[in-house]
C-alpha cells in the first residue's frame, strides 16, 4: 500500500512539473488552475465476508460538500484532486446472532484522477480514472462492540461528467464517480459475543455530484 501511495504522489509531482515546464494552461491562455465546489451523494454498494458469524454489511448513504482542484496541461488533459469527508452508519446484518449495530465511522478519501476533456463549445464532457486513498477515523463502535478498527485502503476510481460554461470564467458541473474500495474491519466483541470478528468489506461507493466551478 505504501508503494502505491508513494507512486501516486510521485506521479502528481511529475505531472505538475511537466505542466509547468510546458507552460500549460486551460486552453484560453489563462491560468491552468480550476476549482469546483459540489454537493455530493455518497452511496455505498457494499458487501462483506464476515468470519464466524456470517451475514453482510449495511453502510448508510451520506450527503456532504466536496472541493476539487484541477490542473490543466492543455485544453484536453488535466489532473483533479478530490477532497471531502463523509460519515456513515455501519451495521452487520443477517448474522447468526442477528443484526449488530456497529456505530459510525468517518471516511477521508482523497482521490486523484487523470481526465480527458472533450472541448469545442460551452458543453464540455470529460472522463477520468485514478487512485483513491481512504482513511478511517472518528470511529464510534456502537452499543455491542468493544472496539472496531478499519484498515486504511487504497483503491481505484472511474469518473465521468461535464462542465457547462456560463461565461469565460464560471461554469456548472455534474459529476459521477465509482470507487473500488475494500477494507478489513476488526470487531472486538468479546464482552457481548466472547470473540473478535474480522470482516472483509467491499464499500465500492457511487458518488453523484452537482456544483459550480471557476477558472482562475
TrEMBL record:
Annotated GO biological process: transmembrane transport
Annotated InterPro entries: OMP/PagP_B-barrel, OMPW
Gene3D superfamilies tied to this protein: 2.40.160.20
Entry keywords, A to Z: Signal
First and last residue of the signal peptide: 1-21
GO terms under cellular component: outer membrane
Domain of life: Bacteria
Descriptive protein name: OmpW family protein
Amino acid at each position: 500500500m505504501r508503494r502505491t501511495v508513494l507512486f501516486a504522489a510521485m506521479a502528481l509531482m511529475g505531472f505538475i512539473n511537466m505542466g509547468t515546464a510546458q507552460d500549460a494552461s486551460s486552453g484560453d491562455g489563462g491560468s491552468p488552475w480550476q476549482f469546483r465546489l459540489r454537493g455530493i451523494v455518497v452511496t455505498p454498494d457494499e458487501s462483506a465476508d464476515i468470519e464466524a458469524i456470517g451475514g453482510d454489511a449495511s453502510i448508510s448513504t451520506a450527503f456532504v460538500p466536496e472541493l476539487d482542484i484541477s490542473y490543466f496541461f492543455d485544453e484536453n488533459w488535466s489532473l483533479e484532486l478530490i477532497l471531502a469527508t463523509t460519515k456513515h452508519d455501519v451495521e452487520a446484518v443477517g448474522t447468526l446472532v442477528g443484526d449488530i449495530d456497529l456505530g459510525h465511522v468517518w471516511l477521508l478519501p482523497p482521490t486523484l484522477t487523470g481526465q480527458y476533456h472533450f472541448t469545442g463549445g460551452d458543453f464540455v464532457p470529460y472522463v477520468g480514472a485514478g487512485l483513491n486513498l481512504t482513511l478511517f477515523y472518528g470511529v464510534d463502535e456502537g452499543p455491542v462492540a468493544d472496539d472496531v478498527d478499519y484498515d486504511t485502503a487504497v483503491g481505484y476510481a472511474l469518473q465521468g461528467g461535464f462542465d457547462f460554461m456560463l461565461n469565460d470564467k464560471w461554469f456548472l458541473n455534474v459529476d459521477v464517480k465509482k470507487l473500488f474500495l475494500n477494507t478489513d474491519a476488526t470487531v472486538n466483541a468479546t464482552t457481548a459475543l466472547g470473540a473478535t470478528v474480522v470482516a472483509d468489506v467491499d464499500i465500492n461507493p457511487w458518488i453523484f455530484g452537482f456544483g459550480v466551478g471557476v477558472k482562475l
